[in-house]
Specification:
This protein is an alpha/beta fold. It folds into 2 domains: 154 residues, ATPase, nucleotide binding domain (Nucleotidyltransferase, domain 5); 165 residues, ATPase, nucleotide binding domain (Nucleotidyltransferase, domain 5). It contains 11 helices and 10 strands. Strands 3-2-1-4-5 form a 5-stranded mixed β-sheet, sandwiched between helices. The protein has a 5-stranded mixed β-sheet with strand order 8-7-6-9-10, sandwiched between helices. A hairpin with a 2-residue loop joins strand 7 and strand 8. It is globular, with a radius of gyration of 21 Å. Bound molecules: 5'-O-[(R)-(carboxyoxy)(hydroxy)phosphoryl]adenosine and zinc ion. Zinc ion binds next to helix 4.
């Protein structure tokens, strides 16, 4: 990789779902610095449909792709010629969406004659809690809890190349649960932030929701029974249209509390089973204020070090993809010509 001194300027792309993001990162002697992180959100488009419409996501990524690149480069105060590494999400995600960012990255890599690091989106989330503080080795091994619209996964992370799945939801992801309840109540998509805000003024003890798989011996989880219990509670009160704002606040607070308790218990179980003392929580749902406070309060009591990314790096962003890119062996468009041309999106890429 052609780098000036020890400086690497990394141009990163993320487009796995409904956000198109482009970021520039600098790795120098003093660690990693995020020079820009541009995100084109499509929440206002998909909100109308109550969830992501894949075809609309990819079509709107096409519109965002060049402006995002231009803004990321100009905000970083660099020239494209300064870039010496490109990183891009190659999966998992929506194939049409993935292809827009990945092909833009491939084109840039080929045109600039610099290597391309192919990044797993979940790996981006896993290391995002370290994005702003720098290196991870001092924290290995750690337990990574990735909570998003599509994932509720627990990993044992021993190094950048040794990541093992040790627990997961058996059905819905916890972000999906928040999104579905918000939609059912008529509050729209994406629902996690809406439920979180409603919950702030609600009573967490007002409704007693179940804790699925509480006594199971492994860190697997299940959220679909909890979703049914919430829908049942709403229907018992006459259905969504009969729910007053105060009741919606209480339902949101009780649901948020239950989800936070489940996530903490299962993560703490994983720490105990694998003898690990550090936890890194990431993914869009890690923006949740109660999940943050429960993990921080209980973590201290149990002697666990809990690390979250800033809220702006919890949801999908290209900065986390660039950060993961620094630890990968990239593929050069000329030196590794065949491998380079074979780079493709993998919508169901499992870590
Ligand atoms: O990581 P992310 O941006 O995209 C995926 O890879 O899925 O996560 C999106 C998810 C959505 O389900 C959204 O409702 C949820 O993150 N989310 C939240 C909050 N902000 C976003 N969930 C709970 N509390 C929040 N404050
Ligand atoms: Zn994500």
């Amino acid at each position: 990789m052609k780098a000036s001194g020890t400086r690497i300027i990394n141009l990163a792309f993320e487009s796995s779902c409904d956000d198109f993001s482009c970021s520039v990162l600098l790795k120098g002697e003093n660690g990693v610095k995020i020079l820009s992180n541009i995100i084109y959100s499509q929440d206002y488009i998909h909100g109308i449909y109550g969830g992501v419409v894949p075809e609309l996501a990819s079509r709107n990524h096409i519109k965002a792709s060049l402006p995002a690149l231009g803004l990321a480069v100009s905000e970083a105060g660099i020239n494209l010629k300064d870039v010496n590494l490109i990183s891009a999400t190659a999966g998992p995600g929506l194939v049409g969406s993935l292809l827009i960012g990945l092909m833009e990255a491939k084109t840039a890599s080929f045109a600039l004659n610099i290597p391309l690091a192919r990044i797993n989106h979940i790996e981006g989330h896993i290391f995002s809690p370290f994005l702003e503080t720098g290196e991870t080795p001092e924290h290995f091994p750690f337990i990574a809890l990735v909570i998003s619209g599509g994932h509720t996964h627990i990993y044992l992370v021993k190094s950048h190349n040794d990541i093992r799945l040790v627990g997961r939801t058996r059905d819905d992801a916890c972000g999906e649960l928040f999104d579905k309840v918000s939609n059912y109540l008529g509050f729209g998509y994406p629902g996690g932030k809406i439920i979180d805000e409603l919950a702030e003024k609600g009573s967490a003890g007002a409704f007693k929701f179940p804790f699925p798989m509480m006594h199971s011996r492994n860190p697997d989880m299940s959220f679909s029974g909890l979703k049914t219990a919430v829908v049942y509670a709403i229907d018992k009160l006459g259905g969504p249209e009969k729910i007053q704002e105060n009741t919606a606040r209480d339902i949101s607070a009780s649901l948020r509390e239950t989800v936070a308790e489940i996530l903490y218990k299962k993560t703490a179980d994983a720490c105990r089973i694998y003898g690990v003392k550090t936890v890194a929580v990431s993914g869009g749902v890690s923006a949740n204020s109660r999940i943050r406070s429960i993990f921080n309060e209980k973590g201290i009591k149990n002697g666990l070090k809990i690390i979250f990314p800033s809220v702006k790096y919890s949801t999908d962003n290209a900065a986390m993809i660039g950060y993961a890119g620094f630890f990968k062996t990239p593929v050069h468009p000329v030196e590794n010509r065949e491998d380079f041309f074979n780079i493709n999106a993998d919508p169901s890429w499992e870590l």
